[in-house]
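I am still learning, so would you mind making up any protein sequence you like and the tokens describing how it folds?
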Amino acid sequence: MFRVRIAPLPDGLHQETHHPSAEDLGLDPEVFSGIEVDLRLDVAERRVLAAYTARATARLECDRTLEMYDEPVEADHAVLFSADAQPDGDDPDDDLLPLDADALAIDLTAPVHDTLLLALPLRRVSPAARAAEIPTTFGEPDDDDDSPADHRWAALRGLRPDGDPDSSD
């Protein structure tokens, strides 16, 4: 659980850096490491705006080579905790969360968890595979331009009305 104490904070802007573990955020520790959250808290009466930048190193499998590699991920997000917000059972992942009048801390576990998961790339390609050329032709090159690419089609090409195997109608 990743909770930030707000009880001792006076009204105004506050900046903090936190290093929660993957377990604190409910993330797989074999995938996420080096998590850092740069947090900006704007505290006012009956509300707290928590804007943050979440960074981590993710251990991913390359889609091209199937090799494991480390990818730095980073994303920004903001969540408003307000005493006026009503808990909504239909959409629990909203960016407006209720704040109890006597709250001593805010819980950023779910927002930071989701932010880091959404920061993962959809197409996972390792840096080494990004520079590699992707082959677009396969098989052996055909040195004789007069012969068809596949000899099995030669008989069908001879059935053309003009009898020319290289004509295109």
